[in-house]
Design brief:
The protein is built from 12 helices and 12 strands. It has about 325 residues and is an alpha+beta fold. The protein has a domain of about 100 residues: 2-Layer Sandwich (Enolase-like, domain 1), CATH 3.30.390.50. A 5-stranded antiparallel beta sheet has the order 4-5-8-6-7. It has a 4-stranded antiparallel beta sheet with strand order 9-10-11-12. It has a 3-stranded parallel beta sheet with strand order 1-3-2, with helices on one face. The chain binds iron/sulfur cluster.
Length: about 325
């Protein structure tokens, strides 16, 4: 681990001023909140800031359920949100995704904002022993393209990076049309969660649209995304403390045994949380009939590209959609 100075600003404005002096991702000055991902990256020498600015005690950690929907303060922990009675009752998809994430110890510490901003688990990004990683060192190449890429993406990739976005929470929030509230030196703004993460393109080191100094302050989920029949299906290599190979977040508005509206997002397959609007459109008005669901789910494969070891994900993600829709639709 490289040495760094830890700053503990007295309020959020003071913290924002610190970070605004720096740049974008992997800048000399970085924020730290729960720290569950940042500390790993520091230990592995992947991130080498000279200054860390602590957000501890500076951000909202409330969980509010009201007529407008659900509002999650950025500092609320994964554990707190996962077991909140209102979340479990109205937005169970969020609770399911959180409980399928990480470990109890990590969930006790990790925050909502930090979860959305966690870095990829691509092994070539996490191991500085590999020289080629455009995300870690722009212009150095991508070792995953010709290397071990079983865990990498098949959607939203570029010739410069095929890293998967690792958050389960973000996949559930994408399906529920969540909005991210952002604070920064220039004031506050809100954006759809779907617009928070960038595709890698030719700048994979830039992962979000956050400007220097900006921080996530809260996440809101609209009321009309509540009370739906939902399921978060996570396929992974072991039952606990493991990232998704493929996941599907499904929330259904049912009309008897038919689907009035489907909201579906995928994890483990995209370079960002991946919504599948064509699949959703094909499922609208459909009954829970396997052949029809498989036909609709096949549309998720449009534009997908495998890189060898991860070719199987293209079929698996379709099956995950079908299974998750069947489970969600069978709920009462
Ligand atoms: Fe780096 Fe992205 Fe390639 Fe992984 S996939 S080695 S993160 S450039």
């Amino acid at each position: 681990m490289y040495p760094f100075a830890l700053e503990r600003p007295r309020d959020l404005n003071a913290a924002l001023a610190f970070r605004a002096q720096a740049g974008l991702n992997d800048a000399p000055v970085e924020y730290i909140a729960g720290g569950t991902d940042m500390v790993q990256l520091l230990q592995e020498n992947v991130r080498r800031p000279r200054q860390l600015v602590s957000l501890a005690g500076l951000l909202d950690n409330g969980i509010e359920l009201g007529p407008q929907g659900l509002r999650l303060g950025a500092a609320a922990t994964m554990a707190e949100v996962a077991v909140h009675a209102g979340v479990v009752e109205r937005f169970p998809l969020i609770s399911q995704a959180l409980l399928a994430s990480a470990s109890p110890q990590v969930r006790n510490q990790a925050t909502m904002g930090g979860n959305l901003l966690q870095r990829t688990r691509c092994p070539y990004f996490r191991d500085v022993g590999y020289a080629s990683c455009n995300k870690r060192m722009p212009g150095s190449g991508c070792a995953a393209l010709g290397g071990e890429n079983r865990w990498n993406a098949v959607l939203g990739t570029s010739e410069n990076c095929i890293a998967v976005h690792p958050s389960d929470l973000a996949v559930a929030l994408a399906a529920l049309d969540a909005v991210v509230e952002i604070g920064g030196p220039e004031g506050e703004r809100s954006i759809p969660l779907a617009d928070l993460h960038r595709l890698p393109g030719d700048t994979p080191h830039l992962e979000t649209i956050l400007e220097p100094g900006e921080v996530i302050t809260a996440i809101t989920i609209p009321a009309d995304a509540g009370g739906l029949r939902s399921h978060y299906l996570k396929v992974r290599d072991r039952a606990s403390f493991e990232f998704a190979v493929v996941s599907a977040a499904v929330a259904l508005d049912m009309d008897g045994s038919g689907i009035r509206q489907a909201r579906i997002a995928l994890g483990g397959v995209g370079t960002k949380p991946w919504r599948v609007p064509r699949v959703e459109a094909a499922m609208a008005g459909a009954v829970l009939e396997p052949a029809k669901l498989r036909e609709a789910a096949a549309l998720a494969a449009e534009g997908a590209r495998g890189y060898g070891h991860n070719d199987f994900k293209i079929e698996l993600m379709q099956r995950a959609i079908v299974r998750a829709v069947e489970i969600a639709g069978a709920r009462t």
